[in-house]
Design brief:
heterodimer; A: alpha/beta; 12 strands; 22% strand; B: alpha/beta; four-stranded mixed β-sheet; 21 helices; 13 strands
Chain lengths: 214, 477
């Protein structure tokens, strides 16, 4: 008897339990767009990621340049797949780098498949340049989230996934790579990015420096 | 380290200052972090009940779910292997590495691979194996076992890490390593080279999803993502109990896992992977294998210990256990430590080798209270205690005592007399302490206890005597 058959025979002795169909997991509170954005921002910031809101795609290159300058980083970016409306190639503020990351890490800019407010995460999918290995090798990862991609929470992500062909891999990313193995507090940049910055493009949102204050 | 030596190992652990500092920090910080994170959920009790019921339903139909999962993986171009025990699992992984012509293997942390002793087995084949979780990497360099399910190097301080790196990393160094930042930079550089040069990446899986064929892996470091993206072959090694039916069911467990484990809504990286690289993919392995390990799990079905299969390895029970947070993980001498380890290890290794572990508990019940899938750990520990007693394992000195107790408990008249006598004798031996009297010692009896604490003294009267007196008074009134 093969191991497979032996294990399955052993498992067939289990007593089936029925799952009561009621009591679907409680959904996160849906408090409308402003509340959702605040939750999203708070979740990211709690995980040492940073966050900014801009009113339209044209403002994205400026926001990227401002972030890089504020962190004393070079203005050179390595673009992954970004939303079509965002034009990084012709942005005067930025230096458009090669397709490959430099050996010391560099800055990667990508879009995403979705973002989740309750968990404060961005969701990247394989199949494109969005999740080349670059997303885990870059020193700085800037993620652009388009209006409409921000969902309430994880339970809203699954129906989105079922709409299209399932990507080979999906990555829910909540902030920079970190480790607690060298004591408290956690240290950032264990293997992957040292910095994760999320830019939300939201025309309906009144732009402000700190979305936590609104 | 062996579970048979728990008493000596526990005594030694109490004398280790670095371990005690780490445990004290954990004991102080973790309960609050967990409680705050769970309070952020709309309805934790409902979510917990849902998780428990869903895990039970999944365990009841594991065969069906695993067949569905397997079909999805095959359709995506992957291969599924089944292993009855540790030896089979190690052989399968070894042969896959050989077939890939591999020399260098990178791993992200996996308790199942600890359980089956995979690293030793691969190294015996001449493979170079590098753990990439930082804590696991440190203990691998030191030749140690994990002392916590999530924080394997919990027992080490920064000075230990510095000494380990200075010994093993051959690099020019102007001055000794002192700062955590420098140690991290050094490990990052060493491990990045290992990632880029590896032929095979091995990960565990926190969950498998039958609906889509996903293997789900969570980390804070991102090392699993690198381990499964860069090498040409990705091998997932995981237990057969990890499978859940749908993505929504996965969501239920993900919403509980990191909150219970580290007090955060999610870990930094949660990854669902469905197979090898597809045409047009910019990255990913050419070959994708899943090794499903039984190793004693299926034998728990239909027993009172079946709820152990619900476990999602969050380690909340460790973080809240008065015994674990006093002695740490190594004292248990088993791969899985803490309350879940004490309950699970006898099932995996047999009660004879692990008879001390069910006794490494005060049965206070916090482990069950904080368990996100409500495993009745105290009940299972009691089950193992009675098994050990029935098999006369490791219960030498207790037996006469238990027999005497049984005789007393079955003879109420004698019980009352003995207790009345004990209450008077203990009162005579006690000393005044404020308004009450306290026991400070009983000669050579209980010296270990009285070295650190005293006991409130009985009033000299038993409850039954007092009750009788009260009834007489009421009747007289």
């Amino acid at each position: 008897m093969s191991a497979r058959d032996a294990i399955l025979a052993q498992l067939s002795r289990a007593t089936p339990a029925t799952l009561r169909p009621a009591a679907v997991a409680p959904a996160p509170v849906n408090g409308g767009s402003a509340v959702k954005i605040r939750r999203f921002a708070a979740g990211l910031q709690a995980a040492s990621a940073t966050f900014a809101v801009v009113s339209g795609p044209a403002a994205v290159p400026g926001a990227i340049a401002a972030y890089l300058a504020a962190n004393s980083l070079p203005l050179r970016i390595c673009p992954g797949e970004v939303p079509a409306a965002v034009d990084l190639r012709n942005a005067a503020q930025l230096e458009y780098g090669a397709d490959r990351l430099p050996d010391d890490g560099g800055t990667l800019v990508t879009g995403c498949l979705a973002a989740l407010a309750e968990e404060g995460v961005v969701v990247l999918a394989s199949g494109t340049r969005q999740v080349a290995a670059d997303a885990f090798l870059a020193a700085t990862h800037i993620v652009i989230v388009e209006s409409g991609q921000l969902l309430d929470g994880m339970d809203d992500l699954w129906p989105v996934l079922r709409q299209g062909p399932l990507p080979r891999s999906l990555h829910l990313i909540r902030g920079p790579s970190r480790t607690a193995d060298l004591g408290v507090p956690s240290r950032l940049g264990a293997h992957g990015p040292l910095r994760v910055h999320v830019i939300l493009v939201e025309p309906a949102y009144v732009e402000c420096a700190d979305p936590g204050d609104t | 380290m062996d579970s048979r030596d728990f008493p000596a190992q526990a005594a030694a652990a109490l004398e280790q200052p670095t371990l005690q500092r780490s445990l004290a920090a954990m004991r102080t910080a973790m309960p609050g972090l967990r409680a705050t994170a769970l309070a952020g959920l709309p309805d934790y009790p409902a979510l917990r009940a849902r998780a428990r019921d869903m895990r039970d339903a999944s365990i009841g139909s594991l065969g069906e779910l695993l067949r569905a999962y397997e079909a999805r993986v095959i359709a995506a171009g992957g291969t599924v292997h089944w292993a009855r025990n540790a030896e089979e699992a190690c052989r399968i992984v070894g042969e896959l590495c050989d077939a890939a012509g591999a020399r260098r293997v990178i791993k992200s942390k996996s308790m199942v691979t600890e359980e089956i002793g995979l690293n030793d087995s691969l190294q015996r084949r001449g493979l170079q194996v590098t753990e990439t979780d930082l804590g696991e990497y440190i203990i691998q360099l030191r030749g140690e076992r994990p002392s916590h399910i999530l924080a394997p190097a919990l027992h080490l301080g920064l000075a230990d890490v510095a000494a380990t790196f200075e010994q093993h990393h051959r690099r020019p160094r102007a001055e000794p390593l002192r700062e955590a930042e420098d140690m991290l930079a050094e490990a990052r550089a060493e491990l990045r080279a290992a990632f880029l040069g590896a032929d095979v990446g091995i990960t565990g899986a926190n969950f498998l999803v039958a609906e889509t064929g996903a293997a789900v892996i969570v980390t804070n470091e991102g090392n699993a993502d690198l381990s499964m993206t860069l090498p040409a072959t990705h091998i997932v090694v995981t237990g057969i109990e990890k499978v859940v039916p749908t993505l929504e069911d996965l969501g239920v467990l993900l919403r509980l896992l990191a909150r219970s484990a580290i007090g955060e809504p999610l870990s930094a990286y949660t990854t669902l992977v469905h197979g090898p690289r597809r045409p047009g993919d910019a990255a990913g392995p050419r070959a994708f294998h899943v090794v499903l390990v039984d190793n004693g799990r299926s034998s728990l079905l239909g027993t009172t210990q079946q709820p152990l299969l619900r476990c999602i390895r969050c380690s909340a029970c460790l973080n809240h256990c008065p015994v674990y947070t006093s002695v740490g993980g190594h004292a248990y001498g088993s791969v899985y430590s803490g309350p879940i380890g004490a309950a699970l290890t006898p099932a995996l290794t047999g009660i004879a080798a692990a008879a001390h572990l069910p006794n490494a508990s005060t049965l206070c019940g916090r482990c069950e209270d904080v368990c996100p899938v409500a495993i009745p750990i105290p009940d299972i520990l009691r089950h193992w205690r009675s098994q050990a007693l029935a098999a006369r394992i490791g219960t030498g000195p207790e037996r006469p005592g238990l027999r005497a107790w049984r005789y007393l408990a079955a003879h109420p008249w004698l019980y009352g007399r003995v207790l009345a006598l004990a209450a008077r004798v203990l009162r005579l031996l006690s000393v005044p302490a404020g308004a009450r009297r306290r026991l400070r010692g009983l000669g050579s009896l209980g010296r270990g206890w009285f070295a650190w604490r005293d006991l409130p003294a009985p009033d000299g009267e038993t409850f039954q005597e007092r009750w009788r007196r009260r009834r007489l008074r009421q009747r007289g009134a």
